Structure formats: C-alpha cells, structure tokens
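To make this tangible, this section ends with a sequence with its structure tokens:
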Amino acid sequence: MEESAIPQRENRMGTMPIGKLLFSVSAPIMLSMLAQALYNIVDSAFVAQVSEEALTAVTMAFPMQNLMIAVSVGLGVGVNAFLSRSLGEKNQANVNAAAMHGLLISWTISVAFCAMGLLGSAAYMRSMTDNPAILDYGTGYLLIVCGVPFGVFNQVIMERLLQSTGKTVYSMISQIVGAGVNTLMDYLLIFGIGFFPKMGVTGAALATVIGQSAAACVGLYLNLSRNREIHFSFRGFRLRGDILRSIFTVGLPSMALASLGSLMTYGMNLILIKFSETAVAFFGAYFKLQSFVLMPIFGLNNGMVPILAYNYGARRRERITKTLKLALIAALSLMAIGTALFELIPAPLLRLFNASDTMIAIGVPGLRTIALHFCLAAFTIILMSSFQAFGTGLPGLLVSFVRQIIFLLPAAYLLSFTGNLDAVWWSFPLAELAALALAALLFRKIYNKRIREMR
C-alpha cells in the first residue's frame, strides 16, 4: 500500500501540467509569504509608533537578526534540494535521512546562535551608534530575538520539509499561524493592551519569538500527521557523510548568499548614519516595504525549486525549461506591480511608519530610485534559484557577492562622498545590472553542461 502511494505522489511533480503544478505548489507559499510581508510592515509600523529612534534601533539590529534567518533558510534550501532530488530518484531511505539530518543540524546551529545573541548583542549595537536610546532599544531587542533562536530554526526546517514534498498548503498554514500570532502579540506587548504590560521594542522582540515558536509547533504537527512521504525516527539513525555533503553543498552557499544581505545592510547602515539617524530609519522602512514585493517572489521560488529539482533528478528537460519560463513571467509581473507602487505612492507608503516630514523628504526620491532595479532583480532571482535546484549553490553565491559586496556597497560608499543622499540610492540599480549580467552568463554555462543534453 505504502509503496504504491509514494510513486503516485511523486508523479505529480513529473506528470502534472507545469502551469497548473507551479501554481498549485507556489500559490500557497506565495500567500503565506505575503502574509509574512504584511506582518513585517505591521511590526515595524507598530515599533515606529514608539519613536523614530525605536525604528532606527530595530533597523540597526536587523542585520544580526537576518543572519540567523539566513542560516536557517540556507539549511532549509539544502535539505529541500536534496530531499526533492531523492524523491525524483525514488530513494525513500534518503528522503527520510534528509529530514532527520536537517532537524539535527538545525538544533545544533540554534545553540551556537543562542550563545552569539547573549554574548554579542551589546557590542554589535555599539559598533554602529553611541546614541543611548538606540543602544538600549537595539540591545534589548537582539538579546531576545537572537538569544532565543530555536523557534525560527524549527519553523523554517518544518516548512521546508512540507514544501519539498509538495505540501505547500500546510506550509502556508504554518506561516500564517506564525505571522498571525506574532502580529497579535506585537499589538498586545508593544502597547500594553489589557493585562499585558507595555513593553515597547522589547515587546516586539518577545512577539517575534512567540510567533516563530507557534509556527514551529504547527509545522511539526503537520509533518507528523500529514506528510506521509517522510518518516521521522531516531531508531537506527546515524549521521552520514554523503548526506551532510549533499545538504551543505547547496546549503552552505545558500547560507552565505543570504548572509551577504546582512553584511550589505550593516554596511549601508554605517554609510547612512553619517547622513542622519533618519536616513537609517528610512532604510529600515524601505526594507519592510521591499519585503512586500519580494516575499511573494521568494514564495514562487520555493515552489519552483522542488519542481526543478525533481525533474532534474528525473532528467526531464522540457519540464525544466517550461517551469523556468513560467516562473520568470510570474516574477516579472509581481515586480512590475511593486515598481508601480513605489513610483506612484511613495509618500503614503512611508506614512505607514509614522514618517516625519524629514523622512518623507528623504524617502520619496529614495523609493523611486531604488524601485528601478525591481524588474531586473526578477531575472536574477529566478536564475539564482535554478542554481540551487540543480545542486550547485556556488554560482548563486558568486552573483549575490558581486551584487551586494563588489558593486552595491562600494558604489554607495563612493556616491556618499557627493554629500547628496539621493545619489546613494543609485547604487541599487547599478549593482543589479552587474548581477544580472553575471547570472545570465553562469546560467547559460550550467544549462549547456547539465540540461541541454537531457532527453
């Protein structure tokens, strides 16, 4: 019974029409990512009601918090890619082993981040500012968010296991529950509603940890009760070097790739603080608004990667190329909508964050300039995700490194010497052009080597 059931589920990735498959797998993830993006906006909007200094502090804390998320997501990408390929190859033993290895690795890394958060939060904040209020807000926030990392690591790995087996509706449920709990607790703990204490920025940090833990619990329950393709058991389990290598071959570059965003944000904060604390606060608001545009595309990618990985394992070139084309069309459409929002209504978007007149003056031209790179980024993101699905993470890491470290930060630094903050924002479209050129070159090389000769 079980052996006949598994191929039937696998056949969905290999036989369902690509358009229907991509939509059915990606749509739930995109909706859950959109819910997460809306939460990100609401969360920062609530923090901004405390003060502009509070928003600045959370913006400065973001790179360290994002580093933790980057590592968890990178691990999830590695597990997802290996598990999906194992499904395509009909290797059930490796499917189960991939899930167990992912759990063990995530728990181990959580302990390391706990120590880093408890010991390094204050020093990290002092590296960017000496403003006492911002230091207090930011250190308190990081001590909780990075000092209690177990929720986010377990949430991510549980969601990735569901996604890799096509259970994206359940992954959506987990994310929406987490975002909903987080948003509710934000409101209660930041402002002190009812019998809850008024905790301000510390309340936002607690709400984040509570929401992540709730999502992790829901994800665990859904994997145990609904994910029939994966069997969890520590009986007879042992670490296997070949599986660790396969997970980390894709996972480590993905971790490093996502971590580059933390380094870039940290560097941008250092550049912007020379102009004003308001410039840093605006950058934080921009990042939350950007997530509203990018999160659905990342959801599309999360649905696309297991489809590509499965059909790569099954050596079905036509389905691979059709998946890539449809994903690119969808990504471009989403980016066009985001560009229109940033260009047409930048001031109302910033007022969501209780923006002062000074922030409006800084932010309106900033949003309009930065948005010019969105449609270019659609191509880059899809190509980089295909590298992960094909089991090679290094090209994606190289593209991201070129974009964020080689071009964006140096360009922003050099443009800052003009003394004109508006000029700094041009570093984003300039860096995206360079990244897209490199991504296209690497994709062509990989496609010709690995995909073109498939039947």
